[in-house]
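[[Local backbone shapes]]
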Amino acid sequence: MQPGCVSARGAGRVIASAGAALLLAAATAGCGHGAGAALVTAGALPAASGTSGCGSKEASGSLQYSLTVSGHRRTVIVHIPPGYTGQRKLALVLNLHGSASTASAEEKFSGMDATADADHFIVAYPQALISDGTGYDWNIPGEPMVNGKFPPASAPSDVAFLTTLVRALAGRYCVNLSRVYATGVSGGGRMASQLACDASSVFAAIAPVAGLRYPSPCPASRPVPVIAFHGTADTIDPFNGFGSGYWTYSVPTAARLWAGHDHCAASAQTTAGRGYRLTRYSGCADGAQVELYAITGEGHEWPGGPAMPRMITSVLGPQSDAVSANALMWAFFRAHPLT
């Protein structure tokens, strides 16, 4: 389930109580795309032309585009920081919503617009295509969805969509193609993990939230820097594994597998902080790193994200501000460009 603003579904199950579902729907009614600003519909995003968007000034704020990829009309919300002039290449972060949710919900749930404004990068919120209740699921190759079914054979490749989206955005905006990153929550975190394997020449690093996996096979052509965040009290995608069909092994196991892929030192360093525990693998090939923040007592949430109503946290579990996932992942991204 996507934590956020649109779905009354749990991961792999519908909320059992109709009353609880109604409360959740009421809590999320009118839940918008961002911090109160009106979303601007900007029309169609042209297909990638190979040209750069640098040199053209564009409006700041959140804009919704459509994009046709492999014959399918796709949706993405793009947030441009204030003061954008098109004269300096900016980093691009794709922020992927979870299962049964939308781009608009993810924009609000993660609160990343404020980080993009403060640190001057572009953040895009793409939308999946497989219908699931009031939202959508990603097509993660070889993995079941939250309803236990596999994506339909007719579902288009989301790896193709997201890599095409990067090229299209680089044709419209002044994007630094050595600084393109992926994050996402829950199903979006699993999709970001897939991008690290299938599109490692595009995405410099990833930062899954409540969704780190190590896809197998993983044809990544380079060591991929990974920073991940996960609540120890997550009952939807349990920290210690043994969850739904798409969630069998533990989050620490996923981090260890990525460390192996990146040829890191065998032993991890652990640091205990107030409300979190950091496991860091260093000594990796090509300067990569693997970091896992285990957030003590947090549920299926975005660490340090905007406060959610009690009606939502009663389903997803407690929130925590022990760390700011946005601040930490941005610092990690800055330290790991594509080389």
